[in-house]
Amino acid sequence: MSFYLVRLEPDGNGGMRDVPLPDHDPYEKGSDAAKAAKSLSDQLGYKVQPRRMAQAPDWRARQQERLASGQLKALPEAWDLAPITDHFAHLSARDPSKIAYTESEELGTIDRVTVTTPGRYLTKFYPEVDDDHRRRLIAAVDPAGEIFYAFKPEEIAEIYKNGPKSCMDARHNFSGMDPHWPTDPYGAGDLAIAYTKNADGRIQSRCLCWPAMKLFGRCYGDVQRMEAAMKAEGYTDAYNGSAQFPSGAKLLKIPHPAKDGFFVMPYFDNIERVILVDDHFETHDGLLKDVPLGTPYIVCGGSAGYSDLYQYCPKTRQGHPQKDFQFVRGPNQQWSRSAIDSYAFNCRGSGKVWSNDYRVLMAGGWYWSKEHFDANGERCTFTGKNYPKDEMVQKGERRIHKSVEWKFDEDGNPMSSEKLRLIEQDRMDRLRFDSRGIYGPSMAEMMRAEMRAEPREIGSPWLRAMHYRDADYIRDREVFYGVDPAAQLGEAVTVTVANRGVTGRTAESFIVDDIVPPQLDARQVEQMSRWMNDMVEDQLMGRADPRPRRYANNR
Question: Which residue from 40, 132, 396, 541 has the fewest beta carbons nearer than 10 Å?
Fold first, then answer.
């Protein structure tokens, strides 16, 4: 660059002198410099002219004279480094907390200086200076620009308590976790709190940093000065770069003194989450699905200063409280409670939790796992339903459930319909009750009349003595028998004879207690009970789960 611009002003002796215009860069061509000079003259109202660089006066002598006269304020005596030639470093006239220096020959000619923080000046031109010496030099120029570091939990807590306002400062009450403060986990050794003080020694600004990685996060207090000071120290701003601290920085594992299962944890700045690794936490930067399966984590302590542990559920692909997780067989993974409720079941045979992909529906309406069924279950060739293996019997070449074995002879051949009819007729004729439930002569006729009114497939000798009724039937009988229909709907309802009315008791207890002992042997009692099971399961008022709650729990 061969030309620069000057402003002509009187020298006090009747002549004119050249005063460089530092706000305008030098020009390569004289014609460009001349055009710029004419335009500025018209705008500013005083004479501006171009000059050749080669004809410029000695700028070094000019700067030396200014320093000697005090026109430029020299660096303090505590700045005990050898000066860099041609820098003419001095305190900036606009901001005495910064250093101004001449960066190049061309800028010296046009009288332009570069202004920077003492930290950046040291980093660029004195990289060999150690940290302690560096802090003393910075403090000599700018007492508020010296950076201090707190590593221990108690030191970090004091910075937060007495420093810039935040949700972790002393204005907030965390007495429930005494003797800890929410920020104590930072004191594991990898992370630190960088902070500055003002002229009165009060904490002026702070930020979380990772010294080994030269990263710092969100700044509090005098943000601009703190950011500038950290950058001058060679740190990278993770906050404005929308980045998070990398994985691997340790945090202390501190159980909450008063809340079981919770841990002391601060409000995070620039930390995505922390994962539990043995006896400590570590920062984790990445997607939630990248957290190793089964690894507890904490997203943030929040303004409360504590959190319970969470865990990633591979089924829901979301985080859930760790206490809600349970091992699920099949996929052999830890699943959350919501995933288990929707996609798993409890095997009634083994008591273990399995994925729904491994379930087998049993005749009673509950589920076994495939594993347990293969070892302990069997399918009835007659009913097509699944039963426990110890309830199956061998009839010839047939494997059938014992509830239907009476329909076959010992060779496995089905009994004739006529023989079944005779068994049922004999059974029905021997049942005689009067209207008070006492044995009497008119019961067979009453039961035959009810059968004709409501035809039903003959399934067992005792089928005629009980009928399932819907809500309308129950309401109709309320007038005569004083039954509360609201208490009966959804229950296992059986109707015996005439004035026996409606009962809400479960099928088994009703049959065994009220009908069976006087007339049936033990095998018939069991058979009739199983028939009632099937009736309740298949015919109960169109409910999604046909078994009433009490009935299902007592099976």
Answer: 132
Q: Using CA atoms, how far apart are residues 467 and 451, in angstroms rounded to an integer? A: 9
Q: Give the C-alpha separation, 183 to 162, whole Å.
A: 13
Phi, psi for 10 (deg, rounded to 5): -60, 145
Burial of 354 (0-12, 13-18, 19+ CB in 10 A): buried
Separation of alpha carbons 365 and 107, rounded Å? 91
Task: Give, as one character, the DSSP assignment of residue 292.
Answer: P
Tell whether the model's pLDDT for residue 477 goes beyond 50.
Answer: no
Radius of gyration, CA atoms only, the chain: 46
Closest listed residue to residue 152, CA positions, set 188, 205, 116: 188
What's the confidence (pLDDT) of residue 471? 41
> What gap in Å lies between CA 223 and CA 506, rounded to an integer?
74
- Taking the C-alpha atoms of residue 350 and residue 410, their distance in angstroms, rounded to an integer, is 33
- Residue 76's contacts (CB-CB under 8 Å, 6 or more residues apart) are 140, 141
Decide if pLDDT at 443 tops 50. Answer: no
The mean per-residue pLDDT over the stretch 267-296 comes to: 90
Which H helix or E strand runs over 320?
strand 318-321
Calculate the CA 291 to chain-centre distance. 11
Tens-digit pLDDT profile for residues 119-168: 889 999 999 999 889 888 988 888 777 889 999 999 999 999 999 999 98
Run of H or E including 307: strand 306-308
**Are 313 and 321 a contacting pair, CB within 8 Å?**
no
Nearest-angstrom CA–CA distance, 100 and 102: 7
Residue 224: φ, ψ to 5°: -60, -45
Contact between residue 185 and residue 281 where contact means Cβ atoms under 8 Å apart = yes
Pairing of strands 114-116, 99-101: antiparallel
Q: Report whether pLDDT(46) > 60.
A: yes
Instruction: Report the distance separating Cα 529 and Cα 71, nearest Å.
Output: 111
Q: For 60, phi and psi rounded to 5 degrees?
A: -65, -45
pLDDT of residue 507: 36
- Which positions ≥6 away from 209 have C-beta within 8 Å? 149, 191, 192, 193, 194, 215, 216, 217, 230, 235
3 state DSSP class of 144: helix
Q: Name the pLDDT band for 527 (thresholds 50, 70, 90).
A: low
| AA identity, residue 253 | K
The number of helix segments (H) and strand segments (E) in the chain equals 17, 31
List 6's β-bridge partners, or say none: 20, 49
With CA atoms as reference, report the closest residue to 169 among 308, 298, 305, 307. Answer: 305
Task: Give 394: exposed, middle or buried? Use CB within 10 Å, 0-12, 13-18, 19+.
Answer: exposed
Structure tokens at 360: 């087998």
Percent of the chain residues topping a pLDDT of 70: 75
Give CA 171 to chain center in angstroms. 29
Q: Measuring CA to CA, how many Å separate 298 from each of 138, 295, 360, 435, 547? A: 39, 10, 38, 71, 43
